[in-house]
Design brief:
Blueprint: E1 26-29, E2 37-40, H1 54-58, E3 60-62, E4 68-70, E5 78-82, H2 84-87, E6 105-109, E7 118-122, E8 135-138, E9 141-142, E10 151-152, E11 155-157, E12 171-177, H3 180-183, E13 194-199, E14 207-218, E15 255-261, E16 267-271, E17 284-296, E18 300-312, E19 319-333, E20 336-350, E21 354-355, H4 362-367, H5 401-406, E22 409-428, E23 431-450, E24 461-484, E25 487-512, E26 523-548, E27 552-563, E28 572-582, H6 585-588, E29 596-608, E30 619-621, E31 632-634, E32 638-639, E33 647-660, E34 665-684, E35 693-716, E36 721-737, E37 744-750, E38 755-760, E39 765-769
Parallel strand pairs: 8-13, 32-35
Antiparallel strand pairs: 1-2, 3-4, 5-12, 6-7, 8-9, 10-11, 11-21, 12-13, 14-17, 15-16, 17-18, 18-19, 19-20, 20-22, 22-23, 23-24, 24-25, 25-26, 26-27, 27-28, 28-29, 29-33, 30-31, 33-34, 34-35, 35-36, 37-38, 38-39
Length: about 775
């Protein structure tokens, strides 16, 4: 830029430029993330080198569609976490390392153990059905974060997720787009926010070899000490001499005044056993080793990573092995940039924990053990001939944990391939075209074996679930940028095709004829149930960004999605977003006292669809048939809705960003409010209709809250600095309405406790509803 004028230009990819200026003019040369330089214009070529500005680099963030922008130009909140922060204490799932680092981001690990999935919620739950989790985008390509398993009223298993295949050593940074205005360009898949993951490339002009190794240990956290320590097993206020009944009931006082014979034939004093379950568990251990090789010649770079992870869980006989291979290559030639990456993850898990109301839920079975009962006594889990030892009257809801880990088993195997390629054609300094293609292929199998004589599975059972998931994503973008005088202008126009084709086969074998050989051929009765899941979303979108004098910025976006899961007439839906920011510190010029101050505001609307096959009846055939006839029936307990509409969320956000004392203190405050309506949900239906539920658009959820991030550098010397980062967030979540007829919608139920997880009008979404014990000051009535 010619100083003092609007005369300027933009360099090409190699940094070359030409500009006609007056004799003796001063050129101001600048680039995002570098210190500006002023040079005198002279005849002939000029060689200008800019130095990196660490402070400025921190103010450049990755936004939607992978576009880098200055933070001050954004009218919405965005948080970025560097890759170094994710490797200091490695987790088995990289997203677990984000806990506590971003205000408004809630990271919850399930009871599925180290091999289980991680639940991430941004600014509260917005939908009554669905997972409410953000979209993960890796190097511009959405990631399939499917969890093949789930736990509900009748139990189940957490079979892990897709984000666990990302190696922390490969992550350059993560950008969290929390509000709809920040994520609107990603469409209905991003209605719950977006986490952008940028992976590392080979270091420029280097050959590097790196090794990283970590060792972590896990111990039991919940000790279940907050239980009554007065009463023991029995009923009607008295203990029983029946050796195998009432092992997990409570009534008579355990004061040691009586002796009781237990199922193993041993007579013991009727006393409380302190900490009666902890010795079942062991110390878990996870070993992670990574080898990294990088080569870069300047215009071409290749980076290869191999990570080996081995885990032994705190539950005996439970272990996991995971191998992650990652290759990324990039090159530039003339006006074309190419970037390609491939990831392969191989994972084997033995004995994932059963969850929910499963008969084999070890945590539940130990937790409900009477306080007068030591789990050590359960080690006599089988009889002399190898059959199940009846320790509690063959109660099918509480299988002996030792029988579960030594006689029953489950195992899973995953082979995941993820590939993406990007080509960028830099037509001129102002315009470029970009095409990105991503594919994900996931082969997953899960075997669940119940040995003969297991309560509830006396004849034995083996169930094999095979999943074949394929996901494809194709995107084309045109990006334009320019400036005229005091104005900066950026425009983006793009289109996207997202396609999913999943196939499932569940094979169930029962009535075991060959004992101790757990294979399908060892059973008399075998049934096979196939399933499929196909979905496609076609999208077009655009964005315009205008800046004035580096202090006032306005953004507008518009996206349209066409979903295959909604009926014609309602399957194409548009949603806009608007945002703006004003950097008032450009006017105040308070210097070191307040070098940076900005206010921002945004409004956005996003929509979301549903799963396929919700619009019509689905038929299937029974495994039983009369000779010559096939028995068919409607395989759907929900009345379909041919007029289904997309869920819509309206959001408003305001924020204030301040920096004080030479940027040594920073404050970021955000207030947001969003309403989600037209929820797609299955409400209870009268049984006289022949269905259990009816699919409707109803319900409204409100989320509003504040987020505060405080950063400070209290100590800074030439060789040492100390940074402190604090954050606080509070989200108020309320169910505003359902269908106008009901005031509660059951999400899940723990039948053995008569407790529900529900959406209740006027309460938080996911409230726990149920009876409680009536207590006095010391004892339970």
């Amino acid at each position: 830029m010619e100083k003092g004028t609007a005369n300027g230009t933009i360099t090409d990819l190699d940094g070359n430029f030409s500009l006609n200026v007056k004799a003796g003019a001063t050129l101001v040369v600048s680039y995002v993330g570098y210190k500006s330089e002023e040079v005198k214009a002279e005849k002939g070529p000029l060689n200008i080198t800019l130095k990196e500005d660490a402070k400025a680099l921190d103010e450049v963030v990755v936004t939607a569609l992978g576009i880098k922008r200055e933070r001050k130009a954004l009218g919405y909140g965005i948080d970025e976490v560097k890759g170094e922060a994710l490797t200091k204490a490695k987790e088995t799932n990289v997203i677990n390392s984000m806990a506590g680092r971003v205000p408004g981001l809630v990271v919850s690990q399930t009871a599925g153990g180290p091999s289980g999935s991680t639940r991430v919620i941004l600014r509260g739950s917005t939908e009554m059905t669905g997972n409410n989790q953000p979209l993960y985008v890796v190097d511009g390509v959405p990631l399939d974060n499917t969890n093949f398993g789930s736990a509900g009223t009748n139990g189940g298993f957490d079979l892990g997720d897709g984000i666990s295949s990302i190696n922390a050593d490969d992550v350059e940074n993560m950008s969290v787009l929390k509000g709809p205005a920040a994520s609107a360009l990603y469409g209905s898949r991003a209605s719950h926010g977006v986490i952008l993951i940028t992976t590392k490339r080979a270091n420029k002009d280097k050959i590097s070899v790196e090794y990283n190794g970590t060792l972590t240990f896990d111990t039991q956290l919940a000790k279940w000490n907050d239980v009554q320590q007065i009463y023991g097993m029995g009923s009607n206020g008295t203990y029983s001499y029946d050796a195998i009944s009432n092992t997990n009931k409570s009534c008579p006082k355990a004061d040691g005044s009586n002796m009781l014979k237990y199922f193993d034939g041993v007579e013991r004093p009727f006393l409380i056993v302190p900490d009666n379950t902890s010795n079942f568990f062991r110390t878990g251990i996870t070993a992670t080793n990574s080898a990294i090789v990088g080569v870069n010649s300047g215009k071409t770079g290749i980076r290869f990573t191999y990570t080996d992870m081995r885990n032994k869980d705190i539950v005996p006989q439970t272990h996991m092995s995971r191998d992650i291979f990652n290759l990324r290559a990039n090159t530039s030639a003339d006006k074309v940039d190419l970037d390609f990456s491939v990831n392969y993850t191989r994972e084997d898990v033995k004995n994932r924990p059963a969850l929910g109301d499963s008969k084999s839920n070890i945590g539940k079975n130990l937790m409900t053990l009477a306080t007068t009962y030591d789990q050590e006594w359960l080690r006599t889990y089988q009889t002399a001939n190898g059959e199940y030892s009846n320790w509690n009257g063959m109660d099918p809801y509480n299988v002996n944990p030792y029988w579960d880990i030594y006689k029953n088993f489950n195992k899973s195997k995953k082979d995941l391939f993820r590939m993406n390629g990007k080509a960028v054609w830099n037509i001129d300094p102002h315009l470029k075209l970009q095409a990105t293609l991503g594919a994900e292929l996931n082969w997953f199998t899960f075997d669940d074996y119940k040995a003969p004589t297991t309560p509830g599975f006396e004849a034995g059972r083996l169930q094999n679930s095979a999943f074949r998931n394929r996901m494809y994503n194709f995107e084309v973008l045109a990006l334009y940028n320019n400036h005229w005088g005091d104005f900066d202008f950026n425009a983006t126009l793009g289109g996207n095709v997202y396609k999913v084709n999943n196939q499932t086969t569940v094979t169930t074998a029962q009535d075991m004829k060959i004992r101790d050989v757990p294979s399908l051929t060892s059973f008399n009765e075998i049934s096979v149930v196939p399933g499929s899941y196909r979905k496609q979303i076609n999208s077009v979108y655009g964005a315009v960004n205008v800046g004035w004098r580096h202090m006032l910025y306005l953004d507008a976006t518009l996206r349209g999605d066409q979903s295959s899961t909604l009926p014609i007439g309602n399957n194409m839906y548009m949603y806009p977003s608007f945002s703006g920011s004003f950097v008032f510190s450009e006017l105040t010029k308070l210097g070191d006292l307040l070098p940076y101050g900005k206010v921002r505001m945004s409004w956005a609307q996003v929509g979301s669809d549903t799963d396929p096959y919700q619009l019509g009846l689905v038929y299937t055939k029974s495994k039983y048939a009369y000779p010559g006839y096939t028995i068919g029936y409607i395989d759907n307990g929900t009345i379909p809705n041919k007029d289904l509409k997309p869920t819509k969320t309206n959001s408003m956000e305001m924020g204030l960003e301040l920096k004080f004392l030479k940027n040594r203190i920073g404050l970021d405050f955000t207030y947001y409010s969003q309403i989600s309506k037209n929820q797609i949900m299955g409400m209870a239906s009268s049984w006289t209709t022949g269905y259990n539920y009816r699919l409707i658009n109803a319900g409204k959820i409100e989320n509003k809250g504040i987020e505060i991030a405080l950063s400070t550098r209290p100590i800074q010397t030439r060789d040492f600095s100390w940074d402190i980062n604090l954050n606080f967030s509070k989200n108020s979540n309320k169910v505003k309405e359902l269908d106008g007829k009901s005031d509660m919608f059951e999400l899940e139920k723990a039948s053995w406790l008569d407790v529900q997880i529900a959406a209740k009008v006027g309460e938080n979404f996911g409230s726990i509803v149920g009876p409680d014990f009536q207590r006095n000051e010391r004892e339970i009535f």
